[in-house]
């Protein structure tokens, strides 16, 4: 069954509001050197073996899904010795011609920044660095004309001010409190730009952050624990189609009810490193 078949399967009466897709520009890195050699988040267990061939097949399915939907996918060369480089979202933030490079918290991932800087430079951007730790689109998600910025585990709250200065965009800080949701993109998905619509998992955030989100996004989808615990919110939307982990079936039902078209993809092997669909996808926001 093709993506077109999947999106045509739901009857119009079940789709809710009309949602419109917009062609997107993504960058991805194949998991050629994927491994779980250290544990820097609660999902990682060095005693559990990794099947690199399976990881590659699952990743290729994700890439093919994007291409099938009409999106552009650039490939960033994988570097030996950087097993987490497949999680391309963490490489930086590219928005409105500004490229901000990641400044990783853990030394095991620090060299990824140089690899993504080389790709950005070759693509014609001029990557800039922050003094304080930021982990790219893991914690920096563009919602309309605002950057939603996570902190609490990986990105330093002080980096948010640097991001605002470098991009010229307003930044809304959101504190994370559950280590299972160590990046913003594990607990929140931007579903559409105009109007900006999101889905999120409230228990991952402080009460103050939840209050901010409810004020900013009164029609947001609040996702339950069963879907959050399979990293169901680590998803990518083009405004109509939402590519999400296959196990997040409840979230998929919520999306259909809201007029979106969910497309489940199995990235179970890459979940062993603590990432899924969005983690593998760096969006070039334009």
From TrEMBL:
Keyword Hydrolase tagged: yes
Protein name as it appears in the record: N-dimethylarginine dimethylaminohydrolase
GO biological processes: L-arginine deiminase pathway
Top-rank taxon, per record: Bacteria
Keyword entries, A-Z: Hydrolase
Entry keyword Hydrolase: yes
A GO MF term: arginine deiminase activity
SUPFAM superfamilies: Pentein
